[in-house]
Amino acid sequence: WVLCTGGFLLLLLYWMPEWCVKATCSRTTVREAEVVLLQSTVSHCPRYYGRNHSGYFSNYFIFSHQFVIRYFTLHSTKYYWNDEVQNFEVRLFFGVNEIAVKVPSVFKLLIKEVLNPFYIFQLFSVILWSADEYYYYAVAIVFMSVISIATSLYTIKKQYVMLHDMVAAHSIVRVSVCRANNDIEEALSTDLVPGDVMVIPSNGTIMPCDAVLVSGTCIVNESMLTGESVPVTKTNLPNPGEGDKEGDGAYSMEEHKRHTLFCGTHIIQTRFYSGELVKAVVVRTGFSTAKGQLVRSILYPKPTDFKLYRDAYLFLLCLVAIAGIGFVYSIVLSIMNKTIIIESLDIITITVPPALPAAMTAGIVYAQRRLKRIGIFCISPQRINICGQLNLVCFDKTGTLTEDGLDLWGVQRVDNGSFHLSEENAYKESLVKSQFVACMATCHSLTKIDGQLSGDPLDLKMFEATGWILEEATEEETSLHDRIMPTVVRPPKQLMPPEPVMSPEQDMELYDLSLAYEIGIVRQFPFSSALQRMCVVARLLGEKRMDAYLKGAPEVVASLCKKDTVPEDFADVLEDYTKQGFRVIALAHRRLESKLTWHKVQNINRDQMEANMEFLGLIIMQNKLKAETAGVLEDLRRAHIRTVMVTGDNMLTAISVARDCGMIPPQDRVIIADALPSKDGQSAKINWRYADKPNNQSPPTSLLAILCLDQYHFAMSGKSFAVISEHFQDVLQKLVLRGTVFARMAPDQKTQLIEALQSVDYFVGMCGDGANDCGALKRAHGGISLSELEASVASPFTSRTPNISCVPSLIREGRAALITSFCVFKFMALYSIIQYISVTLLYSILSNLGDFQFLFIDIAIILLIVFTMSLNPAWKELVSRRPPSGLISGPLLFSVLTQILICLGFQTIAFLWVRHQAWYDIWTPESDACNSSPHANFSPKHNSSEDDHNIKNYENTSLFYVSSFQYLIVAIVFSKGKPFRQPSYKNCEDQRSHVFIVCVPFEWRIALFFIIVVNAAVSVLAEGGIDLWGPKCLSWLCCRQRKVPKALYMHLAQELSVDPDWPPKPTTTTEANPPPPGNTPENCSSCQIMADS
C-alpha cells in the first residue's frame, strides 16, 4: 500500500496517529496492551448543560511496556500500571534529580516542519508545474517556502536553547549530604532522592530540589515562585510536642510552606545555633518540584484554540470540493492524454492556492515589524492574530501595575482614646521613647543580609521611617548560644535627649547602661494572611517586664483592643483613608505581666498574647502606581476589555491597588470568597464577606447610578481558589465572571486561573514580569512579559517598555493583523475562484491561460497586492467593537459569495459577448481583427509561433483583461480600514494591466473597460451594503429567534442576572455537599447556602 500510494499513506498515518495505531495493532485489554492510544483534551472543566466547549483538541501518544514495572512517560511524568485499580496512575519514580530540557536537532525540527500538510501540497504543486514547464512560479514558491521554513526553524530552535540555558544554569551543583553516623559526603545534586538529608551551605546556594528545613534558619529569595523579590525567612519544621499545632500530623507541602525550601529559589543566608548545621530533608526532585512543574507548563502548554484557524481549514476543504468538481469537469470535456491529465490536476492548484501560507504570513510579519518598532518583541507570531480577540487581560501587580514596594504617606497616633492630627513621619525626638515608635521599630520580620536591611517592603518602609538601627547577633555569637541572642533595635544618638553629666561615684558600666535605650525582640509571631496580623514580644533593656506589639489590618487590630482605647471615629477615619486608596496598618501594644519569663513567652499561645491590647494608631502607606497604569486601564475599560489582578501579594494590598488604579470603581462592592477545605469530617465551605464599604455618601439620583450600585467584584486568595476549584466547580465559573482580585496566587494557580477564564470562552491576555508568571504567560492567548529575564522565555511577547502601555498597543496591532488576515484570506479565496472561473470557461473551448499570463497574475498582481494590502498600520485608538473571530460567519460568507457571483457574472458576460461581435472569428495566426478598427494601435505578437495549447484567442484575451481588473477590484473592496486599520488608500499602487495575447479592436477594449467599471461599481456597492446592513439584519434575525449567546460567559451572565440568590449575601456560608452515588457534579446540586448565625 505504501508503494502503491507513492508514500502518501505514510504521511497520512503520520498526520493521523489514531489511524496508525488502529491500522497496525489489534484491540486488547489495557493490562495486556503493548501500545496504548492516549487522548488528552483541553475541555477538562465540567460541561454546561452538556454543551461541548469550542476549544477542543486531541493529541495522541504511544508507549511501550518495559520489564516488571510497566510504565510510560508523558510530558515528563511517569504513569505506572496498578493491578489493584486495573489502570495506570501517576506515581513518583525517583530517577535522576534533573529538569532536562532536550534541544531537538535541526534535522528533526526540519523534518517535522516540512511534513506539514501545506508544504506537502506545495511540493505537489511544484512537481506538477515543473511537469507542465511552468518553472518561474515554481521557483518563486520554493524560494518563499525555504525562507518560511528557515525562519520557523530559527525561532523554534532559539526558544528551546533559551529554555535549556535557563533551566541548566543551576540544575547540577555539588551538595553536602548527611549519611549514617552523621558523616558528610559530597555528591552531585542529580544523585539526590527524597529522604536524603542535605546540608545548606552558610554562604547560600540555588536549591536543586524541594526540601523541608529540619534544623536552623534560612533567608530565601523566592521571586522565581512568587514574583515578589522580598527575602523570606524559613524556619525549621517543629517537632511534635513542642507546643506548636504545626508539629502535629504529617508533613504537608501547602501547610508547611514556611518551612519548605523550593527548587530554583535562592538561599541568601543561613543561621544556626550551638554549632548545629542547617539541614533539610529532600521531599521532591526533578519535574515533580515547584520549578519542574513550572518548566513542564512551559514545555507542554495546553493547545490554544482559535476559531480563525479552524475555519480556515473548513474553508480550504470547500475550495478542495470546488476543485474536485472542476477536475471532473475538465476530464469529461477532454480526452484522456498526458497534457489533459496535467491540466486537470492543474485546476486543483488553481483552486487551492499554494501561496496562501505566504500570503497569510505577510500581514503577521508586517505586524511583527511594527511591534518591534515600539519595543515589543514576538517569539510566536501566530499569537499576534489571537491578540486581536482579547476581551480580558490579567495583570500581575508588583512591578507591573505598581512600582516595587510601598511608601510611607504618614502616621496618625492615638492618645487617651482619640486621634491626633496626622503627621508626615515619626522621626522626632519627642516620639523616640513612645510606644507607637517602639511598635514601628520592633513589629517586623526584617533581617540583615550582607550588612543591608532586607525583608517585606512594608516592614522596611515602616522601620526606615523611625530612623532606628537594627543589630543582629553575628554567626560567632549565635553559634555560642542556644537561640537566646535576640535582634536588637535602638534609636540613633541624635534623637536621644542630652546626656546627663556623670558623677565621680557612678560606675562607668552602670552609667552606660542607664543611658542605653535598646529594645530586644524576644519572640516573633510571623504575619499570617489568614489572621491578617503579626505580633512580637520585646523587652526594653533594663526592664523586667516585657511588651507585646501588634500590627495588622485595622479592623482586626481594633477587635483585639480594649474598647476604651479605640477612638469613636475610628471607622470614619479608616474609611476616609481607604477611599483615597491608601493601605492602612493599625498598631497596638500591651504591657505583659511580670510573671511571664523568657521561657514562658517561648511557649505561650498566640491568642493569649494578642488579647486586651491598647490601640496606638494608624500607619498610612501608599503603593504608588506607575504613571501609565490608570490611563491604560481606563482605555481598556472604554474598549470593553475586562481587567483582572492576579498577584502573589496579600489580599488587602491588592484590593487597595485595584481601587486606586480604577480596576474596581469607587462605588462598586468587593466580596471576598474565603474558602476552607474539608477537615475532620466537615465538608468544604465558602464564607462570604465584604472587603470594605464602597464609596456611597449620597443616595443615587439617576437610573445609571442605581445600576452602578449593583456592580460587584469578587476577591479571593490562592488557598481559597484551590479549594473552590476542587469542591465548587459550578461556583468557580460564576466567580470568574466577576472575579477581579486574585491574591497570594502560586505559579500553577495563575495558570489554572487562566484556564478557568478560558473555559467560559474568554480570550485571555496576561501581563507579568516574573518567573512565577511563566506558566500563565505561556497558557494565555496573548502573554506579554515586561522582563527580559526568565519570563521572556515562556512569553510569546516581551516588551522593553517596563509598564503596561504595551498592552493596548499589542491589542491594536493584533486587531489590525487579524483584519488583515481576514482580508487576505478572502482575497486569496476570490483570487483562486476568479482564476478557476476563467480557466473553466476556457476549458469549454479547449483553451487555457498561458504560462506568462499565470506568471503575470501570480507574481505581478497577486503577490504585489497581498504584500501592499498587508501594510495598513493599526488604528490609533482602541475601540469597543471587536473584529470577528472566525471565517464561518453570516456577513463574511455572504460577502464572499456575493463577490463570487458578481465576478462569475461579468466574466460570463465578457466570454459570451465577445463571441457575438461582428468581427469575431476563430483565431488563427493569419487573423487581423485590429485592422477592422480605424483606432487600432496594437499589433499581434509571435504570429508565426505554434500554439499547441490554443492559448491565443479572443476569449482568452477578453477574460484575462477582465479577470486582471477583478483581482484589483476585490482587493480594494476587501481592504477594510477604520476602526481597526489605517485607511488603505496609502498602500494602493497604480497597477494597471495592458497585456493582450491577441489584438482586439479598439471598440471592444472600450466595451471591456465599461464591463470593468460596472463590475467595480457593483462590487463596491454590494460590499458597502453588506457592511452597513449585514450586522443589523443578523442581529434582527437573532432577536427574532432569541438566539443563545455563543460565549459561555455571556450565557452565564444572563442567567445570574435573574438569579435572586446571586451574588451571595455577606456573612453567609456556602457548603459543599458530596454528590450522591452514581451522580456527577454536572447533574446534581453541589452546594447549599446558609446564613451565618
UniProtKB/TrEMBL annotation:
It is found in: Early endosome membrane; Late endosome membrane; Recycling endosome membrane. Gene3D superfamilies: Calcium-transporting ATPase, cytoplasmic domain N, Calcium-transporting ATPase, cytoplasmic transduction domain A, HAD superfamily/HAD-like. GO terms for cellular component: early endosome membrane; late endosome membrane; recycling endosome membrane. Keywords: ATP-binding, Endosome, Magnesium, Membrane, Metal-binding, Nucleotide-binding, Phosphoprotein, Signal, Translocase, Transmembrane, Transmembrane helix. GO terms for molecular function: ABC-type putrescine transporter activity; ATP binding; ATP hydrolysis activity; ATPase-coupled monoatomic cation transmembrane transporter activity; metal ion binding; P-type ion transporter activity. The keyword Cell cycle does not apply. Its EC number is 7.6.2.16. The chain crosses the membrane at residues 134-156, 312-335, 347-367, 818-846, 852-871, 892-914, 958-974, 995-1022. One of its GO terms (biological process) is intracellular calcium ion homeostasis. Coiled coil: none annotated. The keyword Transferase does not apply. Residues 1-23 form the signal peptide. It comes from the Eukaryota. It is a multi-pass membrane protein. Residues 175-298 form the P-type ATPase A domain. Residues 2-44 form the P5B-type ATPase N-terminal domain. Residues 231-250, 1060-1093 are annotated as: Disordered. Its main location: membrane. It is an enzyme of class 7 (translocase). Residues 1084-1093 have a biased composition (Polar residues). PROSITE patterns: ATPASE_E1_E2. ATP-driven pump involved in endocytosis-dependent polyamine transport. Uses ATP as an energy source to transfer polyamine precursor putrescine from the endosomal compartment to the cytosol. Belongs to the cation transport ATPase (P-type) (TC 3.A.3) family. Type V subfamily. This is Polyamine-transporting ATPase 13A3. The lineage of its organism: Eukaryota, Metazoa, Chordata, Craniata, Vertebrata.
